Amino acid sequence: MKKRDYRITIIAKILIIQLVLTLGGLMIGCTWRIYAENKKWDALVYPGVQLAGFDLGGKTKEEAEQFIRNELIDSLRDKQIKMVLDDQAYDLDCSDLILARFLEDAADRLFSLGKNLDWYQKHQWIKKGKQYPISFRLNEAYIDQFIERIEKDIYREPVNASIQKMPDGTIQVQPEVEGRKLQKEKLKKLIQEKINNGLWEDPVIRIPVQRIAAAVTAEELSCIDTLLASFHTSFAASSPGRIHNIRLAAEKINGTLLMPGEVFSFNERVGPRTRERGFQEGPIIIDSKIGSGLGGGVCQVSSTLYNAKIGRAH
Predict the structure, then answer these.
(1) Fewer CB atoms near the end CB (10 Å): N or C, the chain?
(2) What percent of the chain clears pLDDT 90, i.e. is strictly above it?
(3) Are 177 and 132 in contact (CB under 8 A)?
């Protein structure tokens, strides 16, 4: 069979040329439209650019400067962030919170975003309108100083449960008290988020604290319901200084709770017998002779306590 020759007719050629010209025109038109759109945004803040929760996209540089001055700088002068914990409240002055030099050049920074991209990347940004939040540059030293003041104010040591002998001889358990301390890094993060996300809607922060459990609870002491041992000695004939020292030493060991496995040291609990710690001169025995020395009478407290322990052992 004779092979047929295929020839492109004049009409086909014309159609192909028209198609090529049409596609070329569409490409040129599309490119020109993208170029024109990019060119328009060269004079504006790119869409989606935000500052403190406010969208500044579509504003000129001058409009952005005016907005920042009116809505942020002037507004912040009278704004406060209130920190609350139970019935305690603290006010953080926003006029000192944001660095002034940041607000002064914020419009330049916002306006320049995206301007150094190529034409296609610019088009993608404009077309998709992605969110681009800008954070304030905060006065870190001021925040740290404020948090340190709150930390000292709200810190509370836990108090262990204790037992107390009542006048009728019964034993009463005093419940423990939970302690607390400030979560400093978390509070600092909350302050930063509040400023950068817009504190204008709800300028209140709940102060985050960490609860500190007491080492000894009332439940652990609930099994103690009676006196285990006792011993007494008299100091009626003692001098005023000796009586004072006995009372002071007894106060230092009073309420001591010794849990299973723990060790009690009288000297560690009472501490050094010095004037700075309140001890006075009193009779003491030195080389089988009675003399005078600081803390005279403390030994009577230790011997009385020892005999109570011996009485319990027997």
Answers:
(1) N
(2) 20
(3) no
